[in-house]
Amino acid sequence: MEESPMTETIQFTLNGKPVQLTVDTDRMLLWVLRTDLGLTGTKFGCGESLCGACTVVVNNVAVRSCQTPVKYIRNREVVTIEGLMKDGNLHPLQKAFMEHDALQCGYCTPGMIMNAYSVLRKHPTPSVTDIIEGMNDNLCRCGAHNRIVEAIQTAAKEVKGGL
Amino acid sequence: MKDDQYSGLEFLEEPSDLQISRRDFLKVAGSGIFVLFTVGDTLLAQERQGRRLPTDFNAFLRIGEDGRVSCFVGKIEMGQGVVTSLPQMLADELDVPLDSVDIVMGDTDLCPWDMGTFGSLSTRSFGPSLRAAGAEARQVMLELGSEQLKIAANNLVTEDGFVIDKTDKQHRVSYAQLAQGKKIERHVSGKVAVKKPSEFKIMSKSMTRRDAHEKVTGEAKYAGDIQLPGMLSAKVLRPPAHGAKLIDVDVSEAKKMKDVLVVKEGDFVAVLHKYPDVAEEALSKIKAKFDKPKSDLDDKSIFDHLLKVAPEGKSVAKDGDLKAGESGAKTIVEETYFNDYVAHAAIEPHTAVAKIEGDKATVWASTQNPFTCKEEIAKELGFLSQNVRVITPFVGGGFGGKTRNLQAAEAALLAKLTGKPVQVVYSRKEEFFFDAFRPAAVVKIRSGITDKGKISLWDYRVYFAGERGSQHFYDIPNHSTTAYNSSWVGAAGSHPFATGPWRAPGNNTNTFARESQIDIMAAKAGIDPVEFRLQNMTDKRMIRVLKAAAEKAGWKPGKAPSGRGHGVACGIDAGTYVASIAEVEVDKGIGNVRVKRVICAQDMGVVINPEGATIQMEGCIMMGLGYALTEQVHFKGGDILEANFDTYQIPRFSWLPKIETVILDNKELDPQGGGEPAIVTMGGVIANAIYDAVGVRMYQLPMTPERIKEQTKKG
């Protein structure tokens, strides 16, 4: 039996701006971001919440957009990698990733940074253990892990709890 | 596109023909005539279609009217950092600021032909050609500047994109004024020498990544980020197992879905929609029956099978007399080593976007070899090769896996069949299914040591890993190395699915086996493993590298197993010498290994970007933990049992050891490989550290907890 898609109009905040979108709200946020909204910084890696390449922040908490139905973000605040810069300035995490060369192929990087953002929300002055535990489910195949940890430490010092 | 249509790769050094005399039409060179051609002249285009690096430096660079320099390379950027190191080379040779260089990579219409980005060849093999092009262009600028300024060339210098009067620095002319954004038809007679390391201003300096800003802001485009008007996402019906044949298919439910397009061409069935997730849903509605071939092969029986079907051996190296080595030995060690199939598992899956207009195709692909990809697409479509353009955006990790471009041919075919631009992105399951795995392999070694602790015999036989890294570098009078199947690809009937090059192909297996065997001999001789290696080695480069690693580690000699969990391994790959030391903790009860510290020393000749080279070493160490400890493709017949990262475990943050790297200064030697060498020691160094920790010798990679427990039980 064919199910008819649940097309609804929902409102949410995307990177600080209000958005109204008519969409099948059972669709996953990842694809709505990448197609309808044209924000391709958020990546597809595994489709099953196992790699973290699709990580975005919803109400200050990292979520895996590949497994997050759009209905979940109704009236919520979504931040993607495209929304981290403020007034043309890089976010301290972005700056620290650059300074530490905390990336190679860069494909996991948006997810890493968005997840790190959420880690810093939870642990404003994180220990190395906090960082490693908080980042453990984000996968990087190139092996930039040591530099990512250093970059998050640097960013944490710069923001001093005020993301 | 079928598996067997995939063009295999041969690892050859890239032909560099910059020494070959220049083409006839350049005879105007030296006559004082400065001829300018516009971009895209046919001769250059023909060269770009060729299978050699061009002779004309214009193929590699163009100096714009604004003074910016475009650098054209057929290489691609997949994380290894040539996006930074190649412009460093060009800027230094050309004497322009690094910031003024823009790099264009992997575009088959704009860039000179390239064999592919693999084999750690970008710096050591392509680098000299790019540098030579820069050096010649600088010399031409100097000559043109001399004419313009009416000053003899020997009274001029080049600096920051200017030709400058030595006596009056204000008296100068810019490259931009001289080149005017056009192709430079002046060439220099004879070969222009590239700079010596002592003359480097930009090379051998640490530079942070030039692509980092794009990558931390989400602006960096990968193939899947290319969105074209009217583009459809395609999902292709896949067999449940390799070798399975489609018997029956019912696409009616998928067809009922709004705006879903179904393509069926024989066994090739695809569904398309503007949203990839809706295409995925449509795919799930297809009912298909497949006939699976029966096969008893699985990840356990594969090794007996491989030994049974192994082709005749090919001698890789041989000297002395094995019988004499045997009779001179006090102790003989005979062991067999194994490794399972390993996946590439880049986080970016294979992706392509294809657009067809008339008899022309443009394909954006995540590929390591765009020029090969272009030929494969042309063949698939029946198009002329010159009518196919492959553009390579950033590649999200390759490791050898993206030398296989089935997805690009599929996207092109679907674009042709539907008349619309088509995107193909592999699901993670497809990624594992179609990966050309690092082959399962067996190594048999029979070796002997004299009563003085010298290795007298080395009989080394490698099956199916390939011969790269199979030659030992120890001082052994009687030795033989034989490769049974000298490549990573086997003849039909050997592997149940595709195999291919995986970062430092062959060498991970060979170095694991060799360095384990050396360690066993050291233990039998009761000699410290570093000392044992040093006393069986005369290669000065390797001695230096090993001593550097031991010094950095603070190695304290001891006979293994010392209980400390310290291991050592050496290797050579892509012209680079590596020695690694690891410190591990082993929980014998649960079989778990925790790698606490890895020290890696490397001699890679002249280093172009020390920061970039260090990052590659760190990445190799981290990635290498995976094939050493967990990564194994399970299969049953043609069924690949790995579908995602839940069962296929790659290294994580919680595995992170303390990583310390040393790059030895060696200005005597041209730049060698950097992307792969440090990974080759990781299996061996951890196996040896495990033995030192708990006295358990591991003969098979990966060294999983189950295997460690099993070996512990065996005692």
What does this structure look like?
- The complex is a heterodimer of chains A (163) and B (715).
- Chain A has 163 residues and is of the alpha+beta class.
- Helix content of chain A is 33%, strand content 17%.
- Chain A has a five-stranded mixed sheet with strand order 2-1-5-3-4, with helices on one face.
- In chain A, strand 3 (55-58) and strand 4 (61-64) form a beta hairpin.
- In chain A, helix 3 packs across helix 4.
- Chain B is an alpha+beta fold.
- Chain B has 18 helices and 29 strands.
- Chain B has a seven-stranded mixed sheet with strand order 11-12-9-19-16-17-18, with helices on both faces.
- At the A-B interface, helix 2, helix 3, helix 4 and helix 5 of A face helix 5, helix 7 and helix 16 of B.
Spatial shape of chain A:
globular
- Using only C-alpha atoms, the radius of gyration of chain A works out to 16 Å
Tally of strands of chain B: 29
Question: Which strand-content bin applies to the residues of chain B?
Answer: 15-25%
The proportion of residues forming helix of chain B, as a percent range, comes to: 25-40%
Which structural traits does this protein have?
heterodimer; A: 163 residues; five-stranded mixed sheet; B: 715 residues; alpha+beta; seven-stranded mixed sheet; six-stranded mixed sheet; 23% strand; disordered N terminus
Summarize it:
The complex is a heterodimer of chains A (163) and B (715). Chain A has 163 residues and is α+β, with helices and mostly antiparallel strands.
Helix-strand blueprint:
The complex is a heterodimer of chains A (163) and B (715).
Chain A: E1 7-14, E2 17-24, H1 29-36, E3 55-58, E4 61-64, E5 77-79, H2 92-99, H3 109-122, H4 128-135, H5 145-159
Parallel strand pairs in A: 1-5
Antiparallel strand pairs in A: 1-2, 3-4, 3-5
Helix pairs in contact in A: 2-5, 3-4
Chain B: E1 36-37, H1 42-49, E2 61-63, E3 69-73, H2 82-94, E4 101-105, H3 121-149, E5 156-159, E6 162-165, E7 172-174, H4 175-179, E8 183-184, H5 212-217, E9 232-236, E10 245-250, H6 252-256, E11 261-265, E12 268-273, H7 276-284, E13 287-291, H8 302-309, E14 313-319, H9 322-327, E15 331-339, E16 351-357, E17 360-365, H10 370-381, E18 388-391, H11 406-418, E19 422-425, H12 428-434, E20 441-449, E21 455-463, E22 478-484, H13 507-525, H14 529-535, H15 540-553, E23 566-573, E24 576-587, E25 592-603, H16 610-629, E26 635-636, E27 639-640, E28 658-663, H17 682-694, E29 700-701, H18 705-714
Helix pairs in contact in B: 2-3, 10-11, 13-17, 16-17
